[in-house]
Design a protein that fits this description.
By secondary structure, the chain is of the alpha+beta class. It has five helices and nine strands. A three-stranded antiparallel β-sheet has the order 7-8-9, with no helix packed on it. A two-stranded antiparallel sheet has the order 1-6. It starts with a strand and ends with a strand. The C terminus is likely disordered.
């Protein structure tokens, strides 16, 4: 687990609080993390509880701030969302994350950057680098396109970055 260092005087705004609130509300209403073999989907109590805890912990006052406990709740919710939590469903059981969810998650990540610094141990940094090296072998540049475009081999996925 990375070490979480809290910034002493984070520069947060009411807009930052709102970004987190919108994310928690969206996850609590639109995301699912329990899937049945018959195609059914539902929201686990854990996901619902985490989203509600984040919403309840937010301070919408004149001088917004995030307590250490609130920050940890936000991190926990993002961890669940990053794992088996989806809001987009297609044919034949396809599940994915919408661009809206991805954008909101990135906005919350930017808010967290104002609040904390994650510090990896040398072993964690080495493991993260090895994971990145392994995963990056599955991506190659798209020929004739944008130099920052990537394509996932063997599945025809194309993403413009």
């Amino acid at each position: 687990m990375p070490t979480i260092l809290f910034r002493h005087e984070p520069d947060v705004s009411s807009q930052d609080v709102m970004k987190v609130a919108v994310f928690a509300e969206y996850v609590g209403n639109q995301c699912f993390d329990v899937f049945g073999g018959d195609g059914s989907k539902s929201r686990s109590e854990t996901l619902s509880l985490r989203a509600q805890e984040v919403s309840d912990a937010l301070d919408f006052g004149d001088e917004p701030h995030f307590s250490h406990e609130t920050i940890q709740k936000i991190i926990d919710l993002r961890s669940i969302v990053a794992d088996m939590c989806f809001d987009k469903f297609g044919e034949r059981g396809h599940m994915g994350k919408s661009m809206d969810l991805i954008r909101m998650d990135q906005e919350v990540d930017q808010v967290l950057d104002k609040l904390i610094v994650l510090q990896l141990s040398p072993e964690e940094a080495e493991e993260a680098e090895a994971d990145w090296d392994h995963e990056s072998q599955f991506y190659r540049p798209v020929e004739g396109g944008n130099s920052s475009a990537i394509r996932r081999d063997n599945i025809g996925f194309r993403a413009e970055v």
